[in-house]
């Protein structure tokens, strides 16, 4: 009988020990689920629904950025990552209505220059009128295959939603390499064809974009794809900046 009571006692103790362990595991799992739920909520609360065409803006953290309904004219992230400095000279290729040029002008100040290049004369005229009181923005008409600026003249070369239009891209990137200062940088904002269904014909595979640009003598130093959007940004510097 003594032996049976001992066995029974051990069984009860084992049962309570197992229940305690299960309770602990369950509590930890619940804590993890709650934590993940809050984390997901914090992420999704910052984004508009990508399928909602009425939403003209998304939120990425503290940044307010345009959706794929139009050019990403409000990407403060890009302006910040370019680390623009007063007095710098920028080439904005395919400047369009000059929305990027205006952002750049605010960063570089009165001593800097934004060369707002366009192949459409009417857009050039619109920019000249719009920026008549901002002399550091200089809209001009350029050829489709050449930015037509002097060598070693630009600190930053910027291309937004234009890369897929460029003819003979490798040679064009080589021309840009000559326009850039040895310490310059090239920023390309483009829809990623891999994730862009609606804009498939107006996008580029980023693997191809990077390969072509590096073939021209540039080196990729930064890449970021905006979560929930179709745009990515790639920043390159001249290969000559590396001692190898």
For this entry, give a set of tags.
single chain, 244 residues, alpha/beta, Rossmann fold, 7-stranded mixed β-sheet, two-stranded antiparallel sheet, 6 helices, 37% helix
3D structure, described in words:
With 244 residues, the chain is of the alpha/beta class. The protein folds into 2 domains: 1-45; 57-241, Rossmann fold (3-Layer(aba) Sandwich), CATH 3.40.50.150. The protein is built from 6 helices and 9 strands, in the order αββαβαβαββαβαββ. Strands 5-4-3-6-7-9-8 form a 7-stranded mixed sheet, with helices on both faces. A two-stranded antiparallel ribbon has the order 1-2. It is globular. The model is unreliable at 1-9 and 34-74 (pLDDT under 50). Keywords: Membrane, Methyltransferase, Transferase, Transmembrane, Transmembrane helix.
Percent strand: 15-25%
CATH architecture of the largest domain: 3-Layer(aba) Sandwich
Shape: globular
- Assign the CATH topology of the largest domain: Rossmann fold
Mean pLDDT: 75
Name of the CATH homologous superfamily of the largest domain: Vaccinia Virus protein VP39
Order of helices and strands: HEEHEHEHEEHEHEE
Rg from alpha-carbon coordinates:
27 Å
**Number of helix segments?**
6
**Main beta-sheet strand count, sense and barrel state:** 7 strands, mixed
Return the domain count: 2
Q: Uncertain runs with pLDDT below 50, 5 residues or more? A: 1-9, 34-74
Domain Methyltransferase: 90-184
Pfam family, one: Methyltransf_25
Transmembrane segments: 29-48
InterPro entries: Methyltransf_25, SAM-dependent_MTases_sf
